[in-house]
Amino acid sequence: MNILLVEDNPADARLVAEVMKEGRFHAVLHHVEDGVEAMAFLRQEPPFENKPRPDLLLLDLNMPRKDGWEVLEEIRADDALATLPVIILTTSDVHSDVRRAYSRHANCFLTKPVELDEFIKMITLLKDFWLTAVRLPGA
């Protein structure tokens, strides 16, 4: 299983990677820093032409160059990517963002907890549900 993390905050990206490593995720984590890189990765365009198509996308909303909203809309408009499960992983807990994400067909909306223990717990729950219980379209 391959997971693409689209996250511009290096500390958050490092934390997700560490939690996945410690939690013994049976997945390979790929990381890009913004929406432009995310779409290039997903479409296997340079410099990502040899990267695997991810089975799951963890998408931050607030990023430079191309934000998560634009990425989500592009994914859902592209027949080759439309079934990719997209989990919004963001600092936002604004109800309008939650509604907007689901109206654009995000599969899940998670607000990053501030406390480290809660963040670890959330990523572990993500693993238990999305990597264990759920049958993904690409898997």
Automatic annotation (TrEMBL):
Gene3D superfamilies according to UniProt: 3.40.50.2300
SMART domains recorded for this chain? REC
- Write out the coiled-coil annotation as residue ranges: none
Keywords recorded for this protein, A-Z = Phosphoprotein
Q: What sequence ranges are listed for the domain Response regulatory?
A: 2-127
Has UniProt tagged this entry with the keyword Phosphoprotein? yes
In-chain residues carrying the UniProt-annotated modification 4-aspartylphosphate? 60
Which is a GO BP term held by this UniProt record? phosphorelay signal transduction system
Q: What is this protein called?
A: Chemotaxis protein CheY
The organism's lineage is: Bacteria, Pseudomonadati, Pseudomonadota, Alphaproteobacteria, Rhodospirillales
